[in-house]
Amino acid sequence: MKNENGFILPIVAILAFLFAAILIYQVELLESDRRFLKERQNYFLHDTLLQRASLEMLSILEKSDTIEKVAGQLTFEGGSVIYKVTEEHQNETVILLTSTTDLPGKREIFLVYDKETKRISEWSEGIQ
């Protein structure tokens, strides 16, 4: 055997450090991807809740002739939507829908419903 004067120990330490650094980096990437996926799922859940609530509000508005200031809550699978209805003009009704889920964050949309055409004339979104 040759006298290597401790040549192997520094190489093993450097390789172990590099392996640990790569492992930590990959774990951080995995956690980042998990957070991103959870945020996207939450976003799509809010989107689905608001679409379902807007369709339900449209059916309610089409069936009734007069709407006074109304507030309530629609509960769906995955979350709920709080609505507030105010009548601004004879032909328009403004609706505020706010969706909430178990995850943090809320999403709001403002709808302007035209009674003559029985359609949504304006749609504005906001994220909180």
From TrEMBL:
InterPro entries: Competence_ComGG. Keywords: Membrane, Transmembrane, Transmembrane helix. The chain crosses the membrane at residues 6-25. It holds the Pfam family ComGG. This is Competence protein ComG.
